[in-house]
Give the backbone structure.
Amino acid sequence: MTFRLADIDGRPALVDGSDGWHAIDRIGGGLAGRSVNDLLARSDELHALSSGLDHASADGRFVDALGAGRVGPPVPAPRSVFAIGLNYRSHAEESGAEPPPTPLVFTKFPSCLVGPRAPIALAAPTADHEVELVVVIGRGGRDIDPSDAWSHVVGLTAGQDISDRALQFAARPPHFDLGKSRDTYGPIGPMLVSTDAFENPDDLELECLVNGVRHQHARTSDLIFDVPTLISYLSGILTLQPGDLLFTGTPDGVGAPTGRFLAPGDVVETTIEGIGTLVNHCVE
């Protein structure tokens, strides 16, 4: 059985098929008290635990916890957060750049991560939105073959790679890491969904709306470097660990090419098929 992992009030929880959430510290037996990264390395146990959930004993409704702002990032403390630039041809074209011959990798500092309803605190007038599929590593490893890469992924979640364009391009070469790591510039969620929940995890619809207007819309099958290729490439350089996150890139429709940046009062809605929606309000 698939599982859906969430963070409720700072505690890992499983969400059942009827939208009830169950704190793992209460139901988890041998999993109680473990860190999220440790849980992610134990996907078989998470599957087994999820299959035995009794909705009648749920701690509450996930939708209520979400609406009350009690849901945090499903992976709150990853060791590493990798991100890939120019990984959709449509985005490379709108940016006036050639598609890279190898993955363009940068990092987002984990301190930027926030939950699916957290406000985005705009620190500059040049903040931009980027809807992205986020891959979560479960079984770590080195030199992973592309044919085996999906077995190292415990689940998927949705993300926003909010980017301060002025800071990003304040230096040459650009500050990709700093420009994309201001506090609150990494909303993810609303939950982590195990990979077996998807008929084809390489082909998911994603979109981003700002104030109800669709700005980005694509499918992850349009990625230049797909998930197995990215995992193989990264693991050929360093050992991937449970809980590591991989922001896989964004399609066209970002604000920078037209100078349409986020402003206080804007509402950014990020949806990925089979995962759910982030709703983040922009504040000063």
User: Anything to note?
Assistant: The two ends are 43 Å apart (CA to CA). Residues 4-71 form one domain. The mean pLDDT is 97.
